[in-house]
């Protein structure tokens, strides 16, 4: 399973952006939807690696968030809400988001919790850099280019009233093809890390039981520590 902990950057000096993020992530097919966990932070649970990748990259594009992905078991059966859930993946997500907040100029995303997490993180960082470095004008065009569809650039050009060559140049400069070619790779690496975490849990049931009993949720009245 994948737990995503997404924390607002510079929240002490800015407005609360959690409602906007919840709307941005609200249509993803998650096992448990994103919700505010405490303060300016949201959490969600996904069993599909591609959904976890999509959620992370949406948050990175928004530009106001640090993203941590925890890979590993979540206690089952899943409760009704994300806030009530627990498990080793939540511990890993906390570790990951804390590290993501300290990445400096690098895109603020991290993955933790299983062997192979570093490889998945590396690909997400590369995609995140492509997304982060695009201009508003590039996004104005790219938002009309449906990925993986033959003729999408020509369709976007007609819709925007520009030449197909202009759309093609924008897509090339922005690394649009590279992003959508790399997304499945990130998902494969996350899924592989999840499989490795499951194998470790099966091999060490005593440790797995201890992890599942760990209290990984912060009290609702805990004040912000950032």
Textual characterization of the structure:
- The protein is α+β, with helices and mostly antiparallel strands.
- The protein contains nine helices and five strands; from the N terminus they run βαββαβαβαααααα.
- It has helices at about 20-25, 50-60, 90-100, 115-130, 135-140, 150-160, 165-175, 175-205, 205-215, and strands at about 1-10, 30-40, 40-45, 65-70, 110.
- Strands 2-3-1-4-5 form a five-stranded mixed β-sheet.
- Helix 3 (about 90-100) links the parallel strand 4 and strand 5.
- The chain is globular and about 55 Å long.
- Residues about 205-225 have low confidence and may be disordered.
Describe the secondary-structure layout:
Layout: E1 2-8, H1 18-24, E2 32-38, E3 41-46, H2 49-62, E4 65-71, H3 88-100, E5 109-112, H4 117-132, H5 136-142, H6 152-160, H7 164-173, H8 176-203, H9 205-213
Parallel strand pairs: 4-5
Antiparallel strand pairs: 1-3, 1-4, 2-3
Fill in the keyword field for this structure.
9 helices; disordered C terminus; 226 residues; alpha+beta; five-stranded mixed sheet; 5 strands; 50% helix
């Amino acid at each position: 399973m994948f737990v995503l902990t997404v924390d607002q950057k510079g929240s002490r000096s800015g407005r609360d952006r959690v409602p906007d993020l919840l709307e941005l992530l609200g249509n993803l097919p998650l096992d448990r939807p994103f919700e505010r966990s405490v303060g300016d932070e949201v959490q969600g649970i996904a069993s599909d690696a591609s959904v976890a990748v999509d959620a992370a990259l949406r948050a990175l594009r928004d530009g106001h968030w640090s993203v941590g992905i925890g890979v590993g078991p979540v206690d089952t059966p899943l409760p009704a809400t994300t806030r009530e859930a627990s498990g080793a993946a939540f511990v890993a997500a906390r570790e990951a988001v804390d590290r993501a907040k300290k990445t400096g100029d690098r895109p603020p995303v991290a993955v933790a919790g299983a062997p192979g997490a570093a490889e998945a993180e590396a690909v997400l960082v590369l995609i995140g850099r492509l997304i982060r470095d695009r201009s508003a004008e590039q996004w104005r065009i790219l938002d009309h280019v449906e990925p993986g569809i033959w003729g999408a650039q020509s369709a976007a050009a007609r819709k925007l009233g520009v030449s197909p060559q202009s759309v093609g140049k924008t897509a090339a400069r922005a690394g649009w093809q590279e992003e959508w070619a790399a997304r499945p790779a990130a998902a494969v690496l996350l899924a592989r890390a999840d499989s490795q975490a499951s194998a470790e849990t099966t091999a060490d049931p005593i440790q797995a039981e201890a992890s599942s009993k760990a209290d990984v949720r912060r009290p609702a009245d805990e004040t912000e520590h950032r």
